[in-house]
Amino acid sequence: MAYLTDVEIAQAAQPRIITEVARDLGLSDEDLELYGRFKAKVSLGVFGEMVDRADGKLILVTAITPTPAGEGKTTTTVGLGDALRQLGMSVAIAIREPSLGPCFGIKGGAAGGGYAQVIPMEDINLHFTGDFHAVTTAHNLLAAMLDNSLYQGNPLNIDPYSITWKRVMDMNERALRNVVVGLGGKTGGVPRESGFDITTASEIMALLCLARDRKDLEERLARVVVALAKEGKPITAADLKASGAMAVVLKDAIKPNLVQTLESTPAFVHGGPFGNIAHGSNSIIATRMALKLADYVVTEAGFGSDLGAEKFLNIKCRTAGLSPACVVIVATIRALKMHGGVRKDALTVSDPDAMERGIENLWKHCENMEAHGLSPVIAINRFPTDTEEEVARLYKLCEEKGYPVALSNVWAEGGKGGVDLARLVLETMEKRPSNFRPLYPLEMSLKDKVDTIARTMYGADGVVYTPAAEKKIAQIEKLGFGNLPVCSAKTQNSLSDDPSVVGRPRNFMITVKDAKVSAGAGFVVVYTGDIMTMPGLPRTPAAERIGFDDQGNIVGLF
């Protein structure tokens, strides 16, 4: 059976004018800055009008350890929002913006899929309102002013060997991971080793999404640490007198973007930090605005519960004072079979026994959410190749374990295919109220925080540190940043730090190879395993299939 592609489904939609969608949330035309007929930015002044309004209920969508293609968190998030709206609820969705790197690489976009998408899908996946470009420019402006300070006599006495601030671009480009800058003779600057990260790994992206307002954004930009002085003092963006100009570059990027789903549910799509490198969730500003405008807000956190959800709960919720009312864990039968030992090229073959062997991965993600005082709801994201026997076996296993479970068929049916899940979420919020709590106190030492995350979220026996990581962590605490939360950079393909290990690993250690303070974002990054902050393109990039047809329509975009 032939299926329409995501872009074909999106192009066939008849969206409402965005001003009409905004009115569903109580927003006026004056609250919007239009980007054509179907996209708008929402003025930050809206907050002043809503200060006394009660918040809606926040529903977090996370997932099990995914296959390389992803398990459908965004699709489930969009479909669940549409389903709640079909039940007559006041709903808004709050998700991240896609990165161009994965769009042209292998994973695909972040606008959902099938009949559970946010639109205009092509625009959202390609440039959108320019937020990523603004983040890239602000980041690279700081890099340029740093190198200029070195060139102009180094008045801040910067130690060139201590510089941690690379440049960024929103593309998968392995050739730029390690570069030498400053070549070309005396006028070319001061030669030194550097490199590029992907824009979604930029601290500027992270702090933009953690800022509460424009003033907070400016203060966070000023605190960004780029290097150390030769006497050991941190060198910040404020020292380089760059933070003011950076804030100006981000003057529009800080405003949330409003679009809609295929079923006209309002959707805030704003910010895009990666979940395996940064904290993996949309902006605090967009989430807080959605909570003031709707009774229910459905949001997601990147990759599995061990990554995006852990950081959402311990970084974003702590920073913004948020408390989820419910958490949904997306599971797919194909991923459970992979965790049960099935090869990637055989996941479409019915194998209930393999699925049952892989179920421990799902249980671990449920336990991760229970460790935060949250009662998980399991959403089985159905694929056309799933058999009735596999579905029935998975239902039975979840029910025996005592976890609420519902089938989600939103990819094929839109909101209609998520009504059972929506009803179960509403029932769970009523019967099992959230008792949310962070995983660790900020007063803990950095190594104790890392150990707590590794043991509780990954199931590790402990943590080992390379000498370089030991030195970095000691230095970070000496500089006064030890009371910040931890942002763990780890592979998304395993609960461990080894991407080849599937299922529920046991009897393993997590290896921390490096650490860095992101003082502007307000967390300390620890790098585990062989994590990359600049992805590369696959052998056959998705970009090879993208282009125009004879009518000028975009084709090949998922």
Textual characterization of the structure:
The mean pLDDT is 95. Helix 7 runs antiparallel to helix 10. The strands form six sheets. Strands 1, 2, 3, 4, 5, 6, 13, 14, 15, 16, 17 and 18 form a twelve-stranded mixed beta sheet that branches. A four-stranded mixed beta sheet has the order 19-21-22-20. A two-stranded parallel ribbon has the order 7-10. It has 558 residues and is of the alpha/beta class.
Keywords:
12-stranded mixed beta sheet; 35% helix; 558 residues
In short:
The chain is an alpha/beta fold.
Radius of gyration: 23 Å
Cα distance spanning the termini: 17 Å
Into which percentage range does the β-strand content fall? Answer: 15-25%
- Estimate the helix proportion, in percent: 25-40%
Mean pLDDT: 95
Q: Name the structural class.
A: alpha/beta
Uncertain residue segments: none
* Multimerization state: single chain
| Number of distinct helices | 20
The major sheet is characterized as: 12 strands, mixed
**Morphology:** globular
Q: How many β-strand runs?
A: 24
Task: Describe the secondary structure blueprint for this structure.
Blueprint: H1 6-11, H2 18-24, E1 32-34, E2 40-42, H3 46-50, E3 57-63, H4 73-86, E4 91-95, H5 100-104, E5 112-113, E6 116-119, H6 121-125, H7 131-151, E7 167-169, E8 179-181, E9 192-194, E10 196-198, H8 203-210, H9 214-223, E11 225-228, E12 234-236, H10 243-249, E13 257-261, E14 266-269, H11 284-293, E15 296-300, H12 305-320, E16 326-331, H13 333-339, H14 352-357, H15 359-370, E17 376-381, H16 388-401, E18 405-408, H17 410-413, H18 419-431, H19 446-458, E19 462-465, H20 467-478, E20 486-489, E21 509-518, E22 523-528, E23 547-548, E24 554-555
Parallel strand pairs: 3-15, 3-16, 4-14, 4-15, 7-10, 16-17, 17-18, 19-21, 20-22
Antiparallel strand pairs: 1-2, 2-13, 5-6, 6-13, 8-9, 11-12, 13-14, 21-22, 23-24
